[in-house]
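Hey, sorry to bother you again with one of my protein questions. There's a protein on my desk that I can't quite get my head around. No rush at all, and the record is pasted right below.
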Amino acid sequence: KEWEQRCSLAVSYRIAYLHDWHENIFNHITLKVDGSESEPGGPFFLLNDFGIGFDEITASNLLKVNLDGIVIQQSIPADRREINPGKGRVFKPGYVLHSAIHAARYDVHAIWHGHDLDASALSQTTIGILPLSQEASYVLNKGLSYHPFEGSANDESEQPRLVANLGPTNQFLLLEDHGPIVACTTIEEAFHGMYFLTRACKYQMKSFAAAGGDISKINVPDDESKEEIMRRLDKFDEAPSSAKSTANNTNHSENKDEVLFHDTSGLMFAYARRSAERVFGKDQIYR
């Protein structure tokens, strides 16, 4: 099971590289190891070895660490960790951010953090993310909060404030003057969230540029429209009903209440995964 998680996380780093959600050797995506909460010293999570680029991440060179940032059970043979054959390096800011959320939010298993240029630029404004697009509305519907900039995230005293600002249910936290964090139950949901958040930020930055920074020239929905937008988002994954899609079925009464839902997050991640595998090759990722 852990190997499957390593493969999913390794390809997530390759996906992030292709989307330019990385900054040289910085930024992190982490995944809690399934069942590790019940292990001595757990829970544990997987993250990238500091010094290795997103396009160099493999299933083998990911590190397993505890909530104190200590590398444990690193049993991967050195010959399968070509770039850094040692025990691995943990970048402290990554540990401070991710361990705080993994420790506080038991519902969160995947955390995706990156320095997308538009998202980071938007985090430097006081405007925040506005409901200007379907993608932005999705982010707002899933819960978005903000955390003020305190400097490099290498001080553990910041962790309680970070967790408090994320809140007990929000999936999105915009670190002001820094960048976004997406915290979800699955790696598929985290990718979905980061994809929509970065898209929303790109749209907003471009629209404000086109309007010369004048918000009066931006189509910002009014309160009544926002309510309708959020209401429709509750049906975001809904498929056409079985009753409507089976025109030849004469007994519609049996299916009229049946509602089918697409696994949108899973479908999006699967496509992104196939794309990354085509670019890098499966043998270069899952090793």
Notes: Residues 45 and 195 are 22 Å apart (CA to CA). The chain has a mean pLDDT of 91. Strands lie at 28-32, 44-47, 63-66, 110-113, 144-147, 172-175, 179-184.
